[in-house]
Write a structure and sequence with these properties.
- Helix content is 67%, strand content 0%.
- With 292 residues, the protein is mainly α.
- The radius of gyration is 25 Å and the shape is elongated.
- It binds a DNA duplex (21 and 21 nucleotides) through helix 2, helix 4, helix 5 and helix 8.
- Keywords: DNA-binding, Nucleus, Repeat, Transcription, Transcription regulation.
DNA sequence: AAAATGTGCAACCGCAACAAG
DNA sequence: GCTTGTTGCGGTTGCACATTT
C-alpha cells in the first residue's frame, strides 16, 4: 500500500457516493468551512452529522493503515475531527468492504424474520447471519416494516369499519386498498393455518403486499445495489492504474492527476512526503502526535 | 406548482461489557 | 478490587428525498 493507492481510494469514494450522501457532504463541507472560520481561535471541536466524501476517504485510508481497531487512536491520528466511536460507526455501517447496498431481498427478509423470532431485537446477532448487512440496516428495515404493519392494520380496520357502515366499495385510496388487501391476505392465512405463527403471516403479508411491486423492486435492487466488494475492486483497479503514474500528482494522462487526493490533516504533509509509507509502528505516530 | 405527508436511512446517544493498568 | 479507556449494541432522532394531496 502506498500513498498513490490511497489516493485511488479517495477517487473511488467519490464514485460510490450516492446522491443523498453527496448532498449531505456538500452541506457538511460548507458547515466545515464555517466552523473552521469560527473555531480558528478555539480548541478543535468534534464534528457531528453526515460524513463528507473527503472524510470517508481519509477514514478508509487510516483504517487500511491501522486496521479496524483502536478507533480513538485512529480518529486522532487521522486528523478527522470525529470521535473514535463515530469513525467506527461510519466504517461498520457504510465503508466496510463487503457491505451490500440496496433493498433487503425476499430471502433476506425471510431470514430476518426467522432470526428475529429466535433472537428478538439482537440486531448484531441477526446481522451476523446476513453477510453484507449491518445491524443498523436490519434494525431500520425492521422498524420500517413494523411501522408499515401498524399503518396497515389501522387502515384496514378503518376500511373494514367504513365498508361495513357505508357499504361503499369505492371508499379509500389506492394505498388503502393495497393495505386492506394485504390485511385480508394476512387474516386469510391465519384462518387457513398457512402460517404457524404471526411471523409467517407477516412475512406472507409483506410478500403479498409487495407482489405487485416485486419485479420493480428487484429491478431497482439490481440497479441500486453497489457492494463494498465492488468498491474495493475499484480501488484495486485504481491501484493498478495509479502504478503507471509518475511521481507526484502532476502525472499526466490520469483523471486523478489534476487534484490532490485527500484533505489536509495534522499528519497529512508528513504523509505526502512518502516517509509515512515506510512506517508501521504505532509508537511512531504517538511520538508524532506528541510533537505536534 | 406548492404544501403536506410518508419513507428510508445515516448518525447520535446512552449504556453495558470488557480489557488494561 | 478500582479506575479508565475502548468497543459494541440497541434505541432513537433528524434529515433528505419521494409521494400524495
Amino acid at each position: 500500500m502506498d500513498h498513490r493507492s490511497m489516493a485511488a481510494a479517495a477517487m473511488s469514494m467519490s464514485m460510490f457516493g450516492r446522491s443523498k450522501q453527496k448532498k449531505d457532504g456538500e452541506r457538511s463541507s460548507s458547515s466545515i468551512g464555517n466552523q473552521q472560520a469560527a473555531a480558528a481561535a478555539l480548541p478543535p471541536r468534534m464534528r457531528k452529522g453526515p460524513w463528507t466524501e473527503e472524510e470517508d476517504a481519509q477514514l478508509v485510508w487510516f483504517v487500511r493503515l491501522f486496521g479496524e481497531r483502536r478507533w480513538d487512536f485512529l480518529a486522532k491520528v487521522s486528523g478527522l475531527r470525529r470521535t473514535g466511536k463515530s469513525c467506527r460507526l461510519r466504517w461498520v455501517n457504510y465503508l466496510h468492504p463487503g457491505l451490500r447496498r440496496g433493498r433487503i431481498t425476499p430471502d433476506e427478509e425471510r431470514l430476518i424474520l426467522e432470526l428475529h423470532a429466535q433472537y428478538g431485537s439482537r440486531w448484531s446477532r441477526i446481522a451476523r447471519s446476513l453477510p453484507g448487512r449491518t445491524d443498523n440496516e436490519i434494525k431500520n428495515y425492521w422498524r420500517t416494516r413494523t411501522r408499515k404493519q401498524k399503518a396497515s392494520a389501522s387502515s384496514s380496520s378503518t376500511v373494514t369499519t367504513t365498508a361495513s357502515c357505508s357499504g361503499s366499495p369505492s371508499s379509500g385510496s389506492g394505498r388503502l386498498t393495497a393495505a386492506s388487501s394485504s390485511a385480508v391476505t394476512e387474516s386469510a392465512l391465519r384462518e387457513s393455518g398457512g402460517g404457524d405463527d404471526d411471523e409467517d403471516a407477516e412475512l406472507d403479508e409483506a410478500s403479498t403486499t409487495a407482489a405487485s411491486q416485486h419485479r420493480h423492486q428487484q429491478q431497482q435492487q439490481q440497479e441500486s445495489s453497489y457492494t463494498m466488494d465492488q468498491f474495493w475492486n475499484e480501488i484495486a483497479a485504481a491501484d493498478a492504474a495509479a502504478s503507471y503514474m509518475v511521481d507526484g500528482w502532476g502525472g499526466a494522462g490520469h483523471p486523478a492527476a489534476a487534484e490532490p487526493p485527500l484533505p489536509s490533516s495534522p499528519v497529512w504533509e508528513y504523509c505526502s512526503d512518502y516517509s509515512l509509507w515506510r512506517i508501521d509502528d504505532e509508537e511512531y505516530y504517538k511520538k508524532m502526535l506528541d510533537a505536534s
